[in-house]
Amino acid sequence: MATEAPATAAVAAELPLDDPRALAAVSLIWREAHLLDARRYEDWDGLWAEGGEYVVPIDRDATDFASCLNLVYDDDRMRRMRIERLTGGFSISAAAAARTVRSVSRFVVTGREDDAIEIRSAQILVGYKREETFVLAADVTHRIVFGADGPRISRKIVRLVNSEDTVTASGFLL
Amino acid sequence: MTTTPETANPSTTAADRVGGDRVAGTLYTDPALFEQEMDRIFHRTWVWVAHESEIARAGDFKTAWVGRRPVIVSRDRRGGINVLLNRCRHRGASVCETPKGNGAGFTCPYHAWSYSLDGTLRGIPYPEGYEDVVEKKDLPLQRLKVGTYAGMIFASFAEEIEPLEDFLGGARMWIDRFMKQGAGYPIKVQGEHKFRFRGNWKIQLENTTDWYHFPIVHRSWMSSVDAETASMLSIMTDETAVTHALGNGHSVSVSVAEHADLDVDDGTEKLQDRFSHIVEELSKDLPPEKVRRIVRSLHGAGFNLNLFPNVAMSMAFFRVLRPLSVDETEVRHVALGLEGGPDIVNRERLRIHEHFQGPFGFGSPDDAEAWNRVQRGVAGGADMPILVNRGLGREKPNDLGQPTSHATDETGMREAYAMWKRMMTDGN
Ligand code: FES
Ligand SMILES: [Fe+2]
């Protein structure tokens, strides 16, 4: 599956509207955005395939995530602990989490396999917390697998435009 | 102490604002005082700028900050370390906006004056207009004074400054101990998390040797790690968890006494189950003592060392603070690894760092929330004192004469504020 940087890979690719899998993937990604903004993290967990990988790298060009420092690098266990943290009531930052509204668009399919597609998109998130409104922009790559129980996320990589600069925590997920 | 009005002239009242066990809330909110801190503290003392591993080879450089002034830290061809003001001598443009890299020198983008790695002005294009006007040797990039200790690089704008070793003083033993987490390998920087919080820099300065907040603010992190890790940090009831004031504003707070000196191992400590895959992997190539030594160091040193004014060496990372304005501060959490050490160990260290640190970690966001709440709350009663008196009654000198109390006591903060007061008022 393609691993080039988002900008170069996107040029030749498009969203094939005649491919029902592409539409199913887009609708899954939109549903994911909806659940994350609503902070319905338990439901969000249900969108993932077993063994899913969730990464927010610092280095936008990184591909070997295990060998470098990331903002988020979660396997199933870490992702579930993260959900527990955000919903368990023990975290003061989660209790005071920013409100978010995100929009995901500019979809292109960048890879196709028998049972999976890779789809890239732009995510613009507007957050609000304590008199401050802020914007986070990211290139997002989803790998969506199609199994017996429908499409599931098997990998999600969120490349923030400012990942190498200061990123300020506000108790939500990308 | 008496309270001081928020608008008071800081130069005459800095002393009044800091008592032995309480400080004025205006210390976090007064913009005039902040400006004075930049001059009297950040531009006058030793400020941490880099670790040697970040500029390991000739030509390596990184940008950094001393107070609010941008600097470049570079390694020249002879292996020397230079800290240069990032400001062209011609008309003031910054000569380097690449956070880190390797090169032969720095060329200003505006009129292409070029400087070598040690700041010497090497070239001026079309020099005819400068005949008898400018001597290149008179216009190097401004060089700061540089001091290094155990791989830590510090810089100062003050020409007349005490030697770095003297400034570090009682902290040196702890810096040496901190580096033992390399288990025989040199320490290297493996990356960093950067975030900002809305709050004064001293709120962060206080935090590193504040174990009192740990079980409260970090409940969510504690519930996410295994019981062994959490019990390692059962600070509140642990009598071996102590804090020492080390002089010159520095302090250390020991959380896991068995790991205060990682070379000392009485053999009774059971290695954590969470690391059994690492033990297994390392045992293929290394003898059992070496494996044990490395695995015992995975969480870093068993203490937090706070170096006044801007760097802390905490467990397995450096925490670097950068004051941005009276109510905004940048924090970097620098992840450490073993230079030339086993990959599996360095990767595990990255995962441990990601778990707690950074804007999406399980610890830092809760700290940042608490610090922001201090800034917001204190503004509501800026004339009320901040209390740093916890443990006053049980503070006693240790055998080195350093004021010592429980790790959850505020001895470290009292030490930092005593230094703050000295630097803000001496020579007045
Ligand atoms: S400002 Fe740097 S060369 Fe002119
Ligand atoms: Fe903390």
Written description of the protein model:
The complex is a heterodimer of chains A (about 170) and B (about 425). With about 170 residues, chain A is α+β, with helices and mostly antiparallel strands. Chain A has five helices and six strands. Chain A has helices spanning about 5-10, 20-35, 40-45, 75-85, 90-95, and strands spanning about 50-55, 70-75, 100-110, 115-130, 130-145, 150-160. In chain A, strands 2-1-6-5-4-3 form a six-stranded mixed sheet. In chain A, a hairpin with a 3-residue loop joins strand 3 (about 100-110) and strand 4. The longest helix of chain A is centred in the first third of the chain and has 18 residues, at about 20-35. Chain B is of the alpha+beta class and about 425 residues long. Chain B is built from 13 helices and 21 strands. Chain B has a nine-stranded antiparallel sheet with strand order 12-18-17-16-15-14-13-21-20. Chain B has a four-stranded antiparallel sheet with strand order 5-4-3-6, with no helix packed on it. A three-stranded antiparallel sheet of chain B has the order 2-11-10, with no helix packed on it. Chain B is globular. Classes of the chains: A alpha+beta (about 170), B alpha+beta (about 425). The interface between A and B is large, with 33 and 38 residues. Bound molecules: FE2/S2 (inorganic) cluster (FES) and fe (ii) ion (FE2). FE2/S2 (inorganic) cluster binds near residues 91, 93, 108 and 111 of chain B.
Keywords:
heterodimer, A: alpha+beta, six-stranded mixed sheet, globular, B: 428 residues, alpha+beta, four-stranded antiparallel sheet, disordered N terminus, binds FE2/S2 (inorganic) cluster, binds fe (ii) ion
